[in-house]
Specification:
five-stranded antiparallel sheet, single chain, mainly beta, 1 helix
Length: 152
């Protein structure tokens, strides 16, 4: 198991997982927030916040988890009203309609929450809707270790 920590986000992942936690390029220049990508496959260099580029290379056994921080004032809005990050999902939480771009067999889940005064979107994609029994526990294992503290 590897423990990775940056920008107030800490997570423990199984061997072979690729984790990238970074500061999103500011747009406009004075606004920049944290993005974390966690995958059980090698993440491509060119990928969007919600995994565009990464979902293109996912196989049926692939798992991708994206965490995106939003402006702190969003933490008080209804969309982000759930306190704390989800610690796990059920297979029935994953749907094809959650995906930004439908890919054969892929399913996803999205949740919004706040913690430590920070607003977050969590988006997870599974490579195959036929492998939920194997892939959902992998997502849950990683989420159970997720810690988010006050931002940098």
């Amino acid at each position: 198991m590897s423990r990775v920590s940056a920008r107030g986000v800490t997570v423990t992942v199984p061997p072979g997982w690729d984790v990238r936690i970074y500061r999103r390029e500011p747009v406009p220049p004075e606004v920049a927030f944290t993005v974390a990508h966690l995958a059980n496959f090698p993440l491509p260099a060119g990928r969007g916040d919600y995994g565009n580029g990464a979902v293109d290379v996912m196989g049926p056994s692939s798992v991708l988890v994206c965490l995106l921080e939003h402006a702190p004032e969003q933490a008080a809005h209804a969309l982000f009203s759930s306190p704390g990050a989800p610690k796990g999902f059920e297979p029935g939480d994953f749907h094809r309609t959650t995906l930004q771009h439908a890919r054969a067999g892929q399913v996803g889940v999205q949740r919004f929450f706040n913690t430590s005064g920070r607003a977050w979107a969590l988006f997870a994609v599974l490579g195959s809707d036929q492998r939920l029994a194997v892939l959902v526990p992998q997502v849950n294992q990683v989420l159970a270790s997720l810690e988010i503290g006050v931002g940098p």
